[in-house]
Amino acid sequence: MGDTETDEQITVMVVDDHPMWRDAVARDLEGAGFTVVATADGVATAGRRAAATRPGVVLMDMQLPDGNGAAATAAVLEVSPDSRVLVLSASSERDDVLDAVKAGASGYLVKSASVEELLDAVRATAAGQAVFTPGLAGLVLGEYRRMSSAPADEQGPAVPQLTERETEVLRFVAKGLSAKQIATKLSLSHRTVENHVQATLRKLQLANRVELTRYAIEQGLE
């Protein structure tokens, strides 16, 4: 998605098992100019409709009749890997938040958020930013910091080492800055920044900037 993408160009799918809430959110999005391409009421329908419509952003509830939001997130991203999932849930429970992020969600917003907060979160998610209700980002960072400080035999496979410059660029990617904006911040050329981003993607075996952002959160890069 380009940095200048307008609301009309942002396609959204709303996944929630409550018809009134689902329809209300869809109306709010359409009223603000977004394009709602599908709605779904569960894990299975979310997967099928994501495959058919390839939405840019998926608003995902955590409590679904045939599974949870984490399972639905994984199902959506399996068939539409370029979609970005923003959880919109009544739950702010630690396990729900961490399960959603581990499944591939780009952010997590509680349903007490205002309509304007929701619309801003959809725009930010579409732009590749990680969006969390205040307090939840700290929870996620704290968990991954705890994991990273665990004894070596409790950790996963070794992560390739990034150069100091690659790490610096990654921090700005995690904040949602474009390559041009990062180039200005670091007094580098646009091409040099893109080269660093591509090198980092190759080293970490990641597919895109959303996955880079998630990696940065997991590693506690702020």
Structure overview:
It is a single chain. This protein is of the alpha/beta class and 222 residues long. Helices cover 51% and strands 13% of the residues. The protein folds into two domains: 9-137, Response regulator (Rossmann fold), CATH 3.40.50; 162-217, Winged helix-like DNA-binding domain superfamily/Winged helix DNA-binding domain (Arc Repressor Mutant, subunit A, Orthogonal Bundle), CATH 1.10.10.10. It contains ten helices and seven strands. The strands form two sheets. The protein has a five-stranded parallel beta sheet, with helices on both faces. It has a two-stranded antiparallel sheet with strand order 4-5. Helix 1 (19-31) links the parallel strand 1 (11-15) and strand 2 (35-40). The longest helix has 15 residues, at 190-204. The model has no long low-confidence stretch (mean pLDDT 84).
